[in-house]
Design brief:
Elements (H helix, E strand, L loop, with lengths): L2 H6 L11 H15 L6 E5 L5 H8 L3 E6 L2 H13 L6 E4 L11 E6 L10 H14 E12 L1 H8 L3 E6 L2 E9 L5 E11 L5 E11 L3 H10 L2 E7 L13 E8 L2
Parallel strand pairs: 1-2, 1-4, 2-3, 4-5
Antiparallel strand pairs: 5-11, 6-7, 7-8, 8-9, 10-11
Helix pairs in contact: 2-3
Length: about 250
């Protein structure tokens, strides 16, 4: 079983600390600051189980959620029905090689989706596609885990996460140059009969520094509007763990 498959069964339960409402507030404030009017069509790239997709859909946006994992998308589709959110289009696709039916006013990519692209060529393919499917001056809003997080939080640390009948053993292995971290995951999910099902997988993330991100956005014909250290538009600090990045498509 792959890492995405292993995580899909417990992903939401292990991410209860993520404040998607506040994150969506940040996205909407970006629309107010940088667009003449809020977009109607929004793509959630690497949507996972649909937390941000559904949150934005509840706020009136016409949402498309795209993810490479059919298991994650299945959970997102089920959640949309359970939570009474209709009209969301979920598509299976690769962030570096996807097709849409037309352009959108904004693309969002939340929870370090870009870090899961394992080399600069893949990031450029992703950025080029996002630019292609954005309306002129449309907004691209994404985040990345910082070099500080790779070095000090990920490192070679091991973690045990437990939430509501699910346990995830998370073992990190950071490369010597500090650029790639492999996450060896073992997930135990409690079944209805009280037994635990075990799922194993490996995920990896690649670290991209600020200068590299700036250069790739420029090469893909984006204008960088801001790199922020939090969803309150604060300036990044030396120990910032996540950068929130906003760019507009020049066409």
């Amino acid at each position: 079983m792959g890492a995405y498959d292993a995580l899909s069964v417990v992903y939401d339960r292990l991410n209860t600390d993520i404040d998607y409402k506040k994150w969506a507030d940040f996205i909407e404030e970006c629309y107010r600051r940088y667009l003449p009017e809020k977009p109607q069509l929004v793509l959630d790239l690497g949507c996972g189980t649909g937390s941000m997709t559904l949150e934005l859909a509840r706020r009136g946006y016409d949402m498309t959620g795209l993810d490479i994992s059919p298991e994650m998308l299945s959970r997102a589709y089920t959640r949309s029905a359970e939570e009474g959110v209709s009209g969301v289009l979920f598509l299976e696709g690769d962030m570096c090689d996807f097709e849409l039916y037309g352009t959108v006013g904004s693309v969002v990519c939340c929870l370090d989706g870009i870090n899961h692209l394992m080399d600069e060529a893949d990031v450029m393919d992703c950025f080029d596609l996002v630019h292609n499917y954005l309306d002129p001056d449309g907004l691209f809003i994404f985040d990345v885990n910082t070099p500080y997080k790779f070095k000090n939080i990920y490192a070679d640390n091991d973690y045990v996460l437990e939430e509501d009948g699910a346990v995830c053993v998370w073992q990190n292995r950071l490369s010597e140059d500090g650029r790639q971290c492999d996450f060896h995951l073992t997930v135990f999910d409690r079944c209805s009969d009280g037994r635990y099902a075990r799922h194993d997988g490996v995920q990896s993330e690649m670290c991209y520094d600020e200068q590299t991100i700036r250069e790739m956005l420029d090469e893909a014909d984006f204008e960088l509007l801001g790199i922020f250290g939090d969803t309150d538009f604060g300036k990044p600090k030396a120990d910032t763990e996540r950068w929130y990045i906003v760019a507009t498509a020049k066409k």
